[in-house]
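Readers of this paper often ask what the protein records in our data store actually look like. The remainder of this section carries one protein's record, kept here as part of the documentation.

:::
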Amino acid sequence: MDLDDVWRTIDSQRASLADLLDDLTPGEWEAPSLCAGWRVRDVAAHLTLAQMGPWPALVETVRARGSFDRMIRESALRVGPLPTAEYGRRIRAMVGSRRTAPFVSPVEPLTDVLVHGQDISVPLGRARPVPPAAAAVSAARVWQLSFPFRARKQLAGLRLVAIDSDWSAGEGALVEGTTGDLLLLLTGRTATVGRLGGEGAQRLAAAEGRRDDPMRRTP
C-alpha cells in the first residue's frame, strides 16, 4: 500500500466505525471492550482524540507524569461521557483529513482504527472484517517498533504467518491466522487466539487457559 492507500483505508475504517457506533444499544456502550478496564464508550472516546494537537498532547503527558499508558487512559476518560451520537460524529468528522497526532506516522492512526475497531466489535459479537492488506502494513509497523507493544519480545520463539496476505515475522513454532487476528496478537490482544492455528497457537491458548484459572496464583 502507498501513502494514499493508507489514508483511504483510514477514512473508510473511520466512516464504517462511526456507522457501527451509531447503531450501538445503551447496553453495548457500557460493555467491556478488549482493552482491560475500558468500556466500549472509553475506546470510542480514545478514537476521537486521533488528531490531538501538540499542546494538548503535552498537557496530557504532564498530567500523566510521563506515563504513556496513563496518558492514553486518562485523556480518553476526560473526553466523556458524551451523548452517544457525538462519538460517531467526531470520528466521522476526521474523514478526509490527513492530520495526525504529534510524532506519529500515518500508520499509527491506521493501526489505531483497525485494532480499536476490533476492541469494540469482537466482545459485542459484531462483524467487522479487517482488510488484510491494511492489517499487513500495521503488523509490519508494530513488529518493527519496540514501543509500546514490544511484540518481538512478547512473541519470541514464534513464527507468525498470515493466511490472507504475504505478511510473516519471527522464528519458531508456527502461529497462523488472518492478518487481522495476528495484528490483535501483536498488540497484546488474546481474545481471538482460538481462531489461530499451529503449534505456537496451541501454546498461546494453553498459556491463556492458565492465566484464566482462578486457582492460579499471581507471583
User: Anything to note?
Assistant: The beta strands are 158-162, 168-170, 173-177. Residues 53 and 178 are 34 Å apart (CA to CA).
